[in-house]
TrEMBL record:
Keywords: Lyase. It comes from Flagellimonas yonaguniensis. Pfam families: DHDPS. The keyword Ribosomal protein does not apply. It comes from the Bacteria. InterPro entries: Aldolase_TIM (IPR013785), DapA-like (IPR002220). Belongs to the DapA family. This is Dihydrodipicolinate synthase family protein.
Length: 307
């Protein structure tokens, strides 16, 4: 059972300089997320450099996360595989290891038709008891999960949420108008976070939360408490950082920000490489400016929700 709400970080995978999993820094980051008040941990997404991880590394990350969170929040694993067979195997293994939920992308590499995509999602859902969030990101993955497709997917009771990353925040309203609370809706684009929450999104699968967990959760809690102006003040400060998430180098960008806040390292796994030259200077300047003006946060953990 997952309460699909709140901020759920798509966490980065921490590596040592020898390209091994850095579980000590990973624990530091996860504990910072928990301290800030996140409602779930999502492993192995784009930010988690999933395509470069071995099956054993993914299992290690799940088990390590479960040990750290001690049941406080659900640990969710991303499914982004080449074939239906692989996707089912990964989902079943994640359930066996102890993951509490799945975030599922459409088939990778092959641009499936609407029908093929629906059949793919249903096959995964029908072969696991884990609750599922569908990840809808046609901008990056070239397949849109339409409202009509979600209608078909509503037949699977364990498909319970959608990460809405079309860049059209009015889809939040369309989903709510059509399905009510049948599907919980999460915004998946950092630069549309506050707007999506204001118009009814249930939660935020966030990226810059990896470096700034308290600021991200504060925005969510303030919006839910009806304190929009206070949330907006933080969001305005946050925006230059949030724009680092909508870039092909989002992993390198966000890991640099994690270094600045002391809860990560810059190490990435090849073929990714650390930022260089003018782009590195630009990103560091954004981070440096933000750190100089980092806002003092209100007591966001003790607000009364009005939503």
């Amino acid at each position: 059972m997952i309460h699909w709400e709140g901020v759920m970080p798509a966490v980065t995978t921490k590596f040592t300089s020898e390209d091994e999993l850095d579980l000590a820094m990973f624990e530091t980051n996860i504990k910072a997320q928990l301290d800030a008040g996140v409602q779930g941990i999502i492993l192995g997404g784009t930010l988690g450099e999933a395509s470069t991880l071995t099956k054993q590394e993914k299992e290690t990350l799940i088990k390590t996360s479960l040990t750290i969170v001690e049941g406080q929040v659900p640990v969710i694993i991303n499914i982004a595989e080449q074939s239906t067979k692989e996707a089912i195997e990964v989902a079943q293994h994640a359930e066996k290891v102890g993951a509490k939920g799945l975030m599922v992308l459409p088939p990778m590499r092959y641009k499936a038709t609407d029908h093929e995509t629906v059949v793919y999602f249903k096959a995964i859902a029908n072969n696991t008891s884990l609750p599922i969030m569908i990840y809808n990101n046609p901008v990056d993955y070239k397949i849109e999960v339409t409202l009509d497709m979600m209608e078909e997917l509503s037949e699977c009771s364990n498909i319970q949420a959608i990460k809405e990353s079309t860049r059209d925040i009015t889809n939040v309203i369309r989903l709510k108008n059509r399905f009510g609370d049948r599907f919980k809706v999460f915004t998946g684009v950092d630069t549309l976070g506050l707007e999506s929450l204001v118009i009814g999104a249930d939660g935020w699968v966030a990226g810059l939360v990896c470096a700034y967990p308290a600021e991200t959760v504060a925005i969510y809690e303030l919006v839910k408490a009806g304190k929009i102006e206070e949330a907006l003040a933080i969001y305005k400060w946050f925006m230059p950082l949030l724009e680092l998430d909508i870039s092909p180098q989002l992993v390198q960008n966000i890991k640099l920000a994690e270094v600045a806040t002391g809860i990560g390292t810059e190490n990435v796994r090849a073929p990714r490489l650390p930022l260089q030259g003018k782009e590195r200077e630009r990103v560091l300047k954004v981070i440096e400016e933000a750190m100089k003006n980092r806002p003092e946060l209100p007591d966001y953990k003790n607000l009364k929700s009005v939503v």
